[in-house]
Amino acid sequence: MTSWTIANVRPWGAAPVDLTIDGTEITGVRPAGTARPDGESVDGRGLLALPGFVNAHAHVDKSWWGQPWVSYGGEPTTQGRIAHERAERDRYGIPGVDGTVAVLREYLRHGTTATRTHVDVDLGLGLRGIEVVREAADRLDGAIDVEIVAFPQDGVIRRPGVLDLLDRAAQAGATSIGGLDPAGIDRDPVAQLDGLFEIAERRGVGLDIHLHDGGELGAFQYELIIDRTLRAGLQGRVTVSHGFALGELAPDRQRALLDDLGEAGISWATVAPVRTAPLPWRGMAERGIGLGLGTDGIRDLWSPFGDGDLLRIALGFARLHGLRTDEELTAAVELATTKAAPFVHRERHDLVPGARADLVLIDAQNVPDALVRVPPRALVVAGGRVVARDGEVLLNA
């Protein structure tokens, strides 16, 4: 299809409209029945329409999705999971193109049309994982927009040579480079952050730092990241992933950090895991601190859980944070859609003219109803193409 119309849909539960799509872009939004399509018209049946979901924190290179069941093993700590993965990944063909394609297809089936994915870069793999993810995305012919963060899963400073790999990944087109628990894993937060920020500043890429350390140890590292962000002029280009400590701090300490994070333009990505402290999401929004939702790993050597459904992640966020009102429940879905645009370098991501034609149709009364029931996706459009219908992906790969 080049120019076509998806008729009679309700964007965000509002009055029915006809959406005109030309190539990969939404070009018109008119009251239902008033559009005069030049090409084909698809009946949206009055269904709820949402923008495609944006997965702001993923690990698509790690999954054993589609393979025989893999039982959980190893020690249940960050260091234990790293060691177990390194010991076992080759046995399960991780990273592998077929497994990555399988995960990306699950994303599309559930309506995710863009993802920011961390891809392991270490001394055993080199940059092979990045090559795998790119090949997998190519197999799906660009249906899902994939941005890559080169991720040092096994540490940075404690593994001499990893900084060089991250630098090479930045040269090879990774949009961001990652870090991992500068204190808890490397035991040298100053050295890790100095090395990462030097590459980011020199290569013009973003930074996305996994930070699991809690309490004051986590807060101390936020202060280091804020300081370096301001000194390097990288406002708006640094993300903290997980960042559990932010929800654990005393209110006054938390507010002061939020002020500084807002000044530095540092964003946050969370997977809203159970048994973690709720984030001060309202205070973050007030200060313009970007907050994105992600699936993290899916059926990998870290955890057997996950199915790629970002709407279910938004529901988990709503439950963890005690959201109840229609406004709050809608805000959780916005975090998984429009508000996540900066995580994949989009100026806009919504059902409006000029936006990429990514949308999801759901049989639901309104946005809160869709969130709490997590119904199947009736139709998924990605980049102007129908890629999934009634839970079935229509692409060959």
From TrEMBL:
<dbReference type="InterPro" id="IPR032466">
    <property type="entry name" value="Metal_Hydrolase"/>
</dbReference>
<dbReference type="InterPro" id="IPR013108">
    <property type="entry name" value="Amidohydro_3"/>
</dbReference>
<dbReference type="InterPro" id="IPR011059">
    <property type="entry name" value="Metal-dep_hydrolase_composite"/>
</dbReference>
<protein>
    <submittedName>
        <fullName>Amidohydrolase</fullName>
    </submittedName>
</protein>
<dbReference type="InterPro" id="IPR052349">
    <property type="entry name" value="Metallo-hydrolase_Enzymes"/>
</dbReference>
<feature type="domain" description="Amidohydrolase 3">
    <location>
        <begin position="103"/>
        <end position="387"/>
    </location>
</feature>
<dbReference type="Pfam" id="PF07969">
    <property type="entry name" value="Amidohydro_3"/>
</dbReference>
